[in-house]
Fold these 4 entries.
Entry 1:
Amino acid sequence: MSGIPASRDLAQELAAQLVAQLAAKGQTISTAESCTGGWIAQAITSVSGSSDVFPGGIVSYSNRAKLELLGVSQSTFDEHGAVSEQTVIEMATGARERFHSDWSVAVSGIAGPGGGTADKPVGTVWIAWLGPEGVTTKRCQFSGDREAVRIATVCEALRNLISL
């Protein structure tokens, strides 16, 4: 993540920039969220005019929801787990297909305080951005408490959408 500290205010500023950018291009964005619980969608929809660029999002907190609502395959969970590059790619694909959007963003991570492992400690988050030119993914390792990890994820997801 960049040197700018993540905050609720920053998330709102980034969401406003994203909505303006998408509106200017006549493009749309959908979301598939796990650890952020809909916070990316909330930031986007808090911007006036967002209905022109945001057809919807899915909060898929459980694996079952990821399977049934987004089409993540059971074999992906079995081989890689819910917090993995493969899972967020399938989540982003599912959101983009279901909402017929130009772009989608998907996040899955371990916000804490529990749930971490040696190879996926608390603060591990995978993000996928899927657009007309393909998919970009990133593994992030955020620090802080549960809220800090979640807001850092929201800001990183929005910041990278603006730069794509």
Note: The first strand starts at residue 29 and ends at 33.
Entry 2:
Amino acid sequence: MEQDDPDSGRYVKRDTTILRREHVPDETKRTPTLWLSLIPVTVLIGSLFYSIVILEGSGHIPLILGSIIAAIIAGTSLGISWPDIQKGLTGGIVTALPAILILIVVGLLIGVWIASGVVPVMVIYGLKILAPGYFLVAACLICALISLATGSSWSTAATVGLAMMGVGQALGIPAGMTAGAVISGAYFGDKMSPLSDTTNLAPAVAGTQLFTHIRHMVYTTVPALIIALIIFTIIGIVRPVSGSVDTPEYLLMLSTINETFNLTPWLLLAPAAVLFLVWKKTPALPALVVGVFVGAVLLLIFQRDGGAGSAPVLSRLLDSLYTGYESHTGVAMVDELLTRGGLSSMLDTIALIIVALSFGGIMESSGMLGRLAAAVLKLARSTGTLITVTIFSCIGMNVLASDQFLAIIVPGRMYRGAFLKRGLHPKNLSRALEDSATLTSPLIPWNTCGAYMAGVLGVSCFTYLPFAFLNLLSPLISIFYGFTGITIEKIEDDPDSIVGITAEEMASSEG
């Protein structure tokens, strides 16, 4: 019989048979200090600010730089071996693989739903409910509908939102009010749509399922929308408007979409199928795959004639799935709205998620993320204060890092363990992340979302901020629920919807 030194972490052998692999923690590994843990975060935030705000670039390279700095500190100052660093790096990515698969299918879904006419018919029905007496209410609801259908607040604001700005100007409504209604609706849809990248990212980081996350957000987002609509209704009563919504831009958008697609109510079968599966609690991936299949069938039935010079219908179907739908109507607003989707459109977002979670994985496995979290969590002595700390951390990341993805990923990784230790279901964390990170991003002028919205709508962030009621109310409602316990669920209330949580993390919650 022979046996290796158990302290080496090598295989233990008896009679040449491998019985088990023992792992003993490396005694050379050191505990990080708070100041040492802040170095990678400081480098990351500084480089993100320079890249995104100054150079107007992306966050990919700063995240890679931050990961390199974190790995160097972990290896040199903390005595962590490269295999352990690499394990942390890849472990962070593994947690997002379900979300990445969903994002791939979402890209397919968006492309085929536009090409089949599903999204265009929803746009048409939404635009037709406009009327001067309740313009702000209608603008908010229309943008919510379009954003739900497309999963993109940016596309909604740049197209339908821009049209609403023109209509509001024709009716004599202050630009800040109209922009507030547009952003409230656009971010409701962005936050609640299974096609949205942030809506997929938040549950992946927190450790729960997509549709579980969306259903849990209903409790904060729908009340915020209802209150916003009530306020917009009161504004409409207090300051009545006159005039017509039939502006040239509005009429041109309607006529162009009608001429480009064969529109019929039957096209609504695609979203109806997905909503039915959601209601039946079908997992996100198969439900969205069904949506892709139904959209493809509708395209083959109703959009066979693509017009003179168009490619064969099967070729258009395959193109819409991979590269997305490309609109060539010559009308800028319509082309901007409908040119999107496809597998390739998701690759940039997937790459950002991978490099961001690589950074988070190294920070977590080295103990630096836990050290930062411990410093902040000294303020969190109850469920209410924990949710409050999470929300303000997300807002702080939006301010400092100027990116909503980082505002979801970094606090999400920092506080996941704290939620589990309190026995709180991960969907409470994912909801708090979206209530703050997603919704406050357009309210900060130097954030990518705030800069984009201000540029597209032609109104400064501080002008529309007082009227973005949904974005302001949702974080407050989330904090209120945290202190009162309303809709706050424990792990044992819904254990089957927990995904991506390691055995060690679950053990900490049981302890």
Note: The radius of gyration is 24 Å.
Entry 3:
Amino acid sequence: MTTHEHTASRIVLPILCTFLFITCNIFEPREAEPPTQSGYQYQPRTFPANVIFNLQNAIREKDPVGYIACFSDSTRNQAPYVFVPSADAANLYGAVLRNWTYQQELSYFQNLISKTRQPQGFSFLSLTPKDSSGTTSRIYGFDYVLTFEHTDTAFTQTARGSLQFTLTETNSEWTISRWVDLKTEPELTWSSFKGRFSN
């Protein structure tokens, strides 16, 4: 290497390092990346079918926030939420299920999750469509099987029956505003789960 080349490298290298330091900030700590999201990504509630889909996945994921988002909240200028229990459950848990509210819907689901078998208790909602009707509001009928592995050994882990969901739209968002539960099978209904795990 000539004297001229040696001098040039002594000038160029510090300039290059300074440039890299300024532009890349290689010695500064990096901004923390957001945590990787796990679980199910919910569908926008712009269609009634998406709400039903989200409900099933919230149950599978044991996600109370995703679950309660499927229901109508009168504090957000949505229709008041109404739940009509099956007759058998109303006889057993009448005081609890009478005048059931949006907040009770959330509390029941949180209580049920708190009694889930650990670490990965199975939870699943199977819905078989029966009928649908309506325009400004939509009424969906389903036969259902709800399975939830919990730690209450004196109570069933499976509910069966039929239900009707009425979905209404507010500000382009659909929610379940009315739920009618019907006993059609020998097993306990979903209403009994609500009564049992209400507190």
Note: Confidence is low (pLDDT under 50) at residues 3-9, 11-38.
Entry 4:
Amino acid sequence: MNIQFDALPLISDRMTGIGWCEAGQTTAMARLHPEDKFMYNFFSRKDDHIKLERLAPFLADIKPNIAHFSILIYRALSTFIPLPYNLFFGNNADVTHFFNYIAPPFVHGKTVITVHDMVYKTFPETVKLRTKLMLDMGLKQSMKRADIIVTDSEFSKSEIVKYFPQHKKKIRVVPCGVDLKKFRPCEDSEKIQQVKKSLGINGEYFLYLGTIEPRKNLERLIMAYYVLAKKLKNPPKLVLAGGKGWLYDSIFRRVKELKLTKQVIFTEYVPSEDITALMCGALAFVFPSVYEGFGMPPLEAMACGVPVLCSDCASLPEVTGDCAVICDAYSVKSIAKGLYKLYSDEKLRKDLSMKGLQRARLFSWEKSAEKLYNIYKEII
């Protein structure tokens, strides 16, 4: 097969979960199937070398395929005029996969899109206006164009069917994976201390890792931490690691209102090479999000042997199983209770650590890639 992937999620200056999902699935698939031809398609009007540098970690078995044209102009034009994608990327593909919701018109061969969640429908107030407009204008048409719609969880499938029931037969669930070589228990205490020092962290800490935005439920987490901190003489710090997303001002304001500026640490974006050590140094990983299509960070934490607290919402129980402390996302009291449970019960932390390690092994990128590859074979 000649399989082509839209590389846009891989060439942004800061990769998000969508990019890491594409990287995991595509590189594993290319390793498993050297008999096939794999390409990364992307538009580039200038600075090809910067985009190729960003793609470099993923190019061992996949070749780049560059169209020298502006992606912004192409997107703007193809929203109103059906400008053929195959004018830029040719007629050789058997399958082209778009990992970020939107498929352009006139793609050669079969078209696959990944729709990770329906947050723009369920919680539109938590989505950037630009993203919402793009999905409102483009997703309906993209789903019509797609031969198959891939999503990350049974929960996300049910959400897509709720809003787009006409496409139910096209939807296939392919769970994400976790890089078990990267995310594993870290025995290098010096590396952990080095990363902690670089981020201004002293002593024990609870860790959240993800975008700083409303649907991650960080205001309630901060309020729950405040309840816990009042109980304890020397509470662990709360580290909120990740880049700023959308409508984050109220999250920072809440910390100031509760006078927690010395106990709550915002690290901004954490380099990929520091994430494992940051996770492994944590007392527990906390992720009380109200909406996730899959929820990779808790799975990565489990792969590191770190006990997890997560909410009972969306796909999170599907991912964590019985290997996490589950709380009510909408109850500050429930989140605080979960934090105290993890802080005070060492045996529970050890049990969750062992169970989490075992569960994480069920979610390899190889398994995810093979499931996706079989879908390509099915439609061809």
Note: The chain is about 45% helix and 15% strand.
